[in-house]
Structure formats: structure tokens, C-alpha cells
UniProtKB/TrEMBL annotation:
Name by which UniProt lists this protein: Transposase
Source organism (scientific name): Rotaria sordida
Pfam families: Transposase_1
Database matches in InterPro entries: RNaseH_sf, Transposase-MT_Hybrid, Transposase_1
GO molecular function: nucleic acid binding
Length: 337
């Protein structure tokens, strides 16, 4: 029930010579805490007995609405253009306008809203942006022309997986009583037990998953011997008639990936390397989909082997459609660059 409806009821009951306390009890019995207070009912009942007819509020004193002039709108616009991080209070100080006027200009006339800045991995240079566009266009053209097929793509990358899971902020939300302190979760220590996994998959599912033993470092030679060679062997096992013919491999520009020895090995095995734009994790299915999905669904694991087994089991539990849809989304993202 709106405020005006409450006041109209008070007006009618007052006209019938009903006492304010009785009117309040009637409203409270129906609307509970939403009903106006006894003081409010008494005040409006007195006004109606004295002859007031209107149930709307009277205009309040303050700065006139005429402060929303074209000059003030332009002044606010220029200030925000110069510094989009200004608060309404700071705009008040610089313009000597009221809080309400500044807010009205920003929302109603400039049609602006304040949003939190989104963190990005790295601010690309002009050259890197140009390379991102060029590489995406060239890759897309090969798919559109039929030179490359989505079913021939294998993508891969590495990521650290913690043995103990603390979950994301949303999964750690809990109900607490008003006034009680919020729950706390200890941030994951960088020294906590973790394992580096190298994962490769196609649009129809996993191909090869490798976990590094404790103390190992992944350089280009390790990458060739322990990741790429087993990957090539698995491809040949899955495709005895065709081997690696027609297969395209996609990964980001991490240092072990782009070493000349790595490129030479893949070329010797007749694998085509798909160029990846610089600093573009949003174009890598591992980064924008798979790794975060796995980490959200992992449970605590006692050691590297059990963690490896859990990741393998989870990846094979996903449907082929999930993998295919991810690659299709990657192409759509390239198209939006």
C-alpha cells in the first residue's frame, strides 16, 4: 500500500470522527510494520480535521529545479570527461551544486552510471593490439575458407592446481545475524601444496594430461620430451591411418611454447602451429573456460597423483558438446576483436 493510500484512509476515517489511535490500530492490524506510526497518523488526522484536502507532500524548500540548466549539465559533462573517477561529492565541491542536482544531471541528462573497473592481465601496446586484430582475422579466414577445420584443432596450456580448495568468494558466502561480523576465509598461501598440470584437448574431449613431479621446472626441452612427444604419440594412437596429418595445435606465447626447438619439433611431426595473439588469454579455451571450471569443481586432494586423477575424471565427465561449444565460442570471440 502506498503512502498516499494510507493518507487517504486516514482522511476518510477522520471525516467519520474516528480517533487517530483507532485508525492506527486498524492499519497496523492489516499491514503490520508497514503501517505508518501512531505519530504520523495523529499528525495527518490533525491536518485533515483542520481542513487540509491534499494527500501529497508539499514542495520542500531547497535549491530550485532550475539548477539543472544546460550550462550546469555541460559543466558536469566536461568535468567527468576530464576525470571519469570523480565522485558526486567532488563534483559538488567543484560546481557548488547540490548533491541531488549533480546526481540528476549525471543519471537523467548525461545517462551515465558508475561501474567498477575490470582488471585485465596486461595493457596492450598499439603494436600488440594491431597484431591481435591481424592474427585473429587471418585465423578466422582459414576457418571460413575451409583451409582449417575445428575438429582438427588441439589446444593446450599449463596451470597450477592447489591440493586444498578454498573456493571462490560466492561459494564462501554464509548467512549471519544482523550486526554479527562476516565469516572469514584464509587466503590461499603461495607456499601451499600445488601441482602444475599440462592439459591438451580437442573439440570432442581430452587428448593428453601431464602433471609435473615435485621439483621439476618446465622449460622448452622438458615441454618437448614430456608434453609434446606423448601428445604426438597419443594423436597417432587415436588416428592410426592419418597420424598427425592435418592436425593444428594451439597454445599461448609462454616462453617454453615459442622456443625455436619446440617449433622445429612440431614441424618435423607435421603439426601446424596456430598463431596466438600476444597477451590474449580471452582467446585461449584453457584460460577463458577450462581451468576455472576444473578449479571450481575440485575437492581437496592429498597429493599430486590424486589431484591428477581427479582432474582426469572431471574432464572425461564433461560431454563432447561442452568441448565443442567452447571452441565455437573461441571463434566468436576472435570475430569480435
Amino acid at each position: 500500500m502506498s503512502t498516499e493510500n494510507f493518507r487517504f484512509y486516514i482522511k476518510v476515517r477522520t471525516a467519520l470522527n474516528i480517533q487517530a489511535r483507532i485508525i492506527h490500530n486498524e492499519l497496523y492490524s492489516v499491514y503490520g510494520d508497514q503501517a505508518p506510526s501512531l505519530t504520523t497518523v495523529e499528525r495527518w488526522s490533525k491536518l485533515f480535521r483542520e481542513g487540509r484536502e491534499e494527500i501529497e507532500d508539499e514542495s520542500r524548500p531547497g535549491r530550485p529545479i532550475t539548477e539543472t540548466t544546460s550550462e550546469n549539465i555541460e559543466e558536469i559533462r566536461l568535468l567527468i570527461n576530464d576525470d571519469p573517477y570523480l565522485t558526486i561529492e567532488e563534483l559538488q565541491e567543484q560546481t557548488d551544486l547540490s548533491y541531488g542536482t549533480v546526481h540528476r544531471i549525471i543519471t537523467d541528462h548525461l545517462n551515465l552510471r558508475k561501474v567498477t573497473a575490470r582488471y585485465i592481465p596486461k595493457d596492450l601496446t598499439d603494436f600488440q593490439r594491431a597484431e591481435r586484430v591481424r592474427i585473429c582475422k587471418e585465423n578466422l579466414a582459414k576457418f571460413q575458407q575451409g583451409t582449417w577445420r575445428l575438429c582438427d584443432i588441439i589446444t593446450g596450456d599449463e596451470s597450477w592446481f592447489y591440493h586444498k580448495q578454498i573456493g571462490r568468494k560466492s561459494s564462501n558466502a554464509a548467512w549471519v545475524r544482523r550486526g554479527d561480523p562476516p565469516p572469514t576465509v584464509v587466503r590461499q598461501s603461495k607456499y601451499a601444496s600445488k601441482t602444475l598440470l599440462s592439459i591438451f584437448f580437442k573439440p570432442n574431449g581430452p587428448v593428453f594430461i601431464h602433471h609435473l613431479e615435485r621439483g621439476q621446472t618446465i622449460d622448452h626441452q622438458y615441454y618437448i620430451n614430456n608434453c609434446l612427444r606423448p601428445l604426438v604419440d597419443e594423436i597417432k594412437r587415436q588416428r592410426p591411418s592419418y597420424g598427425t596429418r592435418g592436425i593444428k595445435i594451439h597454445y599461448d606465447n609462454a616462453r617454453p611454447h615459442v622456443h625455436e626447438d619446440v617449433s622445429s619439433y612440431l614441424e618435423s611431426e607435421h603439426l601446424t602451429i596456430i598463431p596466438h595473439p600476444p597477451n590474449s588469454p580471452d582467446l585461449s579455451p584453457c584460460d577463458f573456460w577450462l581451468f576455472d571450471l576444473i578449479k571450481r569443481n575440485l575437492t581437496d586432494q592429498s597429493d599430486s597423483q590424486s589431484l591428477y586423477d581427479a582432474v582426469v575424471n572431471f574432464m572425461y565427465s564433461l560431454s563432447n558438446e561442452e568441448y565443442k561449444k567452447t571452441f565455437e565460442n573461441g571463434l566468436k570471440e576472435c570475430n569480435c576483436v
